[in-house]
Design brief:
Blueprint lengths: L1 E6 L7 E3 L4 H10 L7 E4 L5 H12 L3 E5 L2 E5 L7 E2 L1 H6 L7 H8 L1 E5 L12 H9 L2 E6 L2 E6 L7 E3 L5 H12 L4 E5 L5 H12 L3 E4 L5 E4 L7 E4 L4 H14 L3 E4 L7 H10 L2 E4 L3 E5 L8 E3 L11 H8 L6 E4 L9 H7 L4 E4 L2 E4 L9 E3 L3 H13 L3 E5 L2 H4 L5 H4 L7 E5 L1
Parallel strand pairs: 2-15, 3-14, 6-7, 10-11, 18-19, 22-23
Antiparallel strand pairs: 1-23, 1-24, 3-5, 4-5, 7-9, 8-9, 11-13, 12-13, 15-17, 16-17, 19-21, 20-21
Helix pairs in contact: 1-2, 1-7, 4-6, 5-6, 6-7, 8-10, 8-12, 10-12
The structure holds uridine-diphosphate-N-acetylglucosamine.
Length: 418
C-alpha cells in the first residue's frame, strides 16, 4: 500500500486547472451501453475509478480505446451479462449499468454493491424506479437479477429522495424506453445535467428542469456522439478550501463556478476573500475566518462530498462551528483522524461540533474514504511538522496523483510504499 508524507506549514502559489468530473464521467461512460455506436469522451480525469469503470465495461465486451484524456467506447458486441463482484465491490457506481442493460438487452445480473464505509447505501430507489418502467428483480447469492418481460415503458416516477445514482439509472433506462417518462423529485446535481447533455447529443430527448423534474421522451435507439466531461466541482472546491486554509493567493481555473455557489457563499460568510468569476475562483489572504453552522443537503445545498474538507477548515476558524450531515449516516470517520492532527471535534449522532482556533500538529493518520482522505491532506498541509497519511488508495479514486497536482504548487508531498 501507499502512504503520503506531507510537510506542514506548506506554501501554495499560482493556479490549478481543474480536469473532468469523476462523478460525471462514470455515468456517461456507462451510457455507452445504451447504443451500438461509439461514444467519444474528452477531458477524463486519470483516476482509479475511471480505470475500474473501463474494466467493468470491458468485462461486458465493450471495446474501449484510450488516448491521453480521451476515451472511445463502443458497445456493439456486448456478451457477458454478469457484473464482476471484485469491481462492483470497489465501486458503487457499478450499479449504474443496471438501467442501461435492462433497457437495451432486457436482462442484467449484478453483484450487490454491499455496504460501504460511509453508510449502508441501499439501492431500493434505483430498483423501485426501474420496476415502475417494467423491470422485475430477484436476488440470488448476492446478485440482483433484473429482467424485462417485453420492453420498458415510460411512466411517471416520484423519487422518495433525490438520489443521484437512482436518477441517473432511471434517466438512462428511460431514454430508450417506449413513451414518456417523468421523474419527479429527481436529483439536481450538475452531474445529472452533464449526463442528460451527453445523452441528448446521442439522440435522446431529455428535458431537465431546475426544479427537480426531468421529462424524457423515449427514442428507439441512440447514436454516436462526442462529449467533453464537465469540470470536477468537488476537486475544485477542495483546492479552494486548501487555499483558504493556507491563507494564500491562489486561483482555481477552468471550472463552472456557479456549481460551487453553496461553498463560495459559505466561505465568504466565514470571512474568506474570494473573487468569483464564471470559470475561475481567485482566493486572496484574509484577516480572519469565523466559525459557522451548516448542514449538508442535496444540490443546490452544501455537498456532502465537501463536508470533510470544510470541517478541517473549521478547526482553524475563530470560534466554534457545527456540521449536520444529512446525506450519509456514517460520514464522520475523518473525525478521530483530524483529532489526531490536533483538531477538537465531537460527534453526537449526525452533528459534528468543531472547536475553532486549533493549532494542528503533524501525526500519523489513516484515510478511511475518498473525501475523508483529502481532508487529512488539507489538515496536514496546515499542521506544524510532518504528517504521514496511510492507506491513500481511497484518495487515488478521486484525486489525480495529489503529490504531483498539489505538490507542484508549493507543498512538499512524497508518496512511498509500506
Ligand atoms: C453520488 C456521488 C457521491 C455523493 C452522493 C451524494 C457518484 C459516483 N457518487 O453517490 O460522491 O456523495 O451522490 O451527493 O456520483 N439511498 C438510498 N437508496 C437508494 C439510493 C440512495 O437509501 O436506492 C441513500 C444513500 O444511502 C445515501 C443517500 O441516499 O444515504 C444519497 O445517495 P445517492 O444520492 O444515491 O448517492 P450516490 O449516487 O451513491
Amino acid at each position: 500500500m501507499d502512504r503520503l508524507i506531507i510537510k506542514g506549514k506548506a506554501d501554495l502559489k499560482g493556479s490549478i486547472k481543474i480536469k473532468g468530473s469523476k462523478n460525471s464521467a462514470l455515468p456517461i461512460m456507462v451510457s455507452a451501453l445504451l447504443t451500438r455506436s461509439p461514444l467519444k469522451l474528452k477531458n477524463l480525469p486519470k483516476l482509479d475509478d475511471i480505470d475500474n469503470m473501463s474494466k467493468l465495461l470491458r468485462s461486458y465486451g465493450a471495446n474501449i480505446k484510450s488516448k491521453q484524456d480521451n476515451l472511445e467506447i463502443k458497445c456493439n458486441n456486448i456478451t457477458n451479462r454478469d457484473a464482476d463482484y471484485d469491481i462492483v465491490r470497489k465501486m458503487r457506481a457499478s450499479i449504474l449499468i443496471l438501467g442501461p442493460l435492462l433497457a437495451r438487452f432486457g436482462k442484467a445480473r449484478i453483484s450487490l454493491p454491499g455496504g460501504c464505509a460511509i453508510g449502508t447505501r441501499p439501492i431500493d430507489i434505483h430498483l423501485e424506479g426501474l420496476k415502475k418502467l417494467g423491470a422485475n428483480f430477484s436476488f440470488e447469492n448476492g446478485y440482483v437479477v433484473g429482467a424485462v418481460e417485453d420492453e420498458l415503458i415510460g411512466k411517471h416516477i416520484t423519487l422518495p429522495f433525490p438520489s443521484v445514482g437512482a436518477t441517473e439509472n432511471i434517466l438512462m433506462a428511460a431514454s430508450i424506453a417506449k413513451g414518456k417518462t417523468i421523474i419527479e423529485n429527481a436529483a439536481r446535481e450538475p452531474e445529472i445535467n452533464d449526463l442528460a447533455f451527453a445523452l441528448n447529443k446521442m439522440g435522446a430527448k431529455i428535458n431537465v428542469k431546475n426544479n427537480g423534474i426531468i421529462k424524457i421522451d423515449g427514442v428507439n435507439s441512440l447514436t454516436q456522439a462526442t462529449h467533453k466531461i464537465m469540470s470536477d466541482r468537488i476537486v475544485a472546491g477542495t483546492f479552494v478550501i486548501a487555499a483558504v486554509m493556507l491563507n494564500k493567493k491562489f486561483e482555481v481555473k477552468e471550472i463552472i463556478s456557479s456549481n460551487l455557489e453553496a461553498l463560495t457563499s459559505l466561505l465568504i460568510k466565514m470571512g474568506a476573500k474570494l473573487k468569483v468569476k464564471k470559470t475561475s475562483i481567485q482566493i486572496m489572504p484574509s484577516k480572519k475566518l469565523n466559525g459557522i453552522k451548516i448542514q449538508t443537503a442535496p444540490y443546490p445545498g452544501f455537498p456532502t462530498d465537501l463536508q470533510a474538507q470544510i470541517m478541517a477548515l473549521m478547526s482553524l476558524a475563530n470560534g466554534n462551528s457545527q456540521i449536520k450531515e444529512n446525506i450519509f449516516e456514517n460520514r464522520f470517520m475523518h473525525v478521530p483522524e483530524l483529532n489526531r492532527l490536533g483538531a477538537n471535534i465531537k460527534v453526537k449522532k449526525d452533528i459534528a461540533f468543531i472547536s475553532g482556533n486549533r493549532h494542528l500538529k503533524g501525526a500519523q493518520v489513516m484515510a478511511s474514504d475518498l473525501r475523508a482522505s483529502v481532508s487529512l491532506v488539507l489538515a496536514a498541509l496546515c499542521a506544524e511538522g510532518e504528517s504521514v497519511i496511510n492507506r491513500v488508495y481511497h484518495l487515488d479514486r478521486g484525486y489525480e496523483k495529489i503529490e504531483h497536482t498539489l505538490g507542484s504548487l508549493g507543498p512538499s508531498i512524497k508518496r512511498e510504499k509500506y
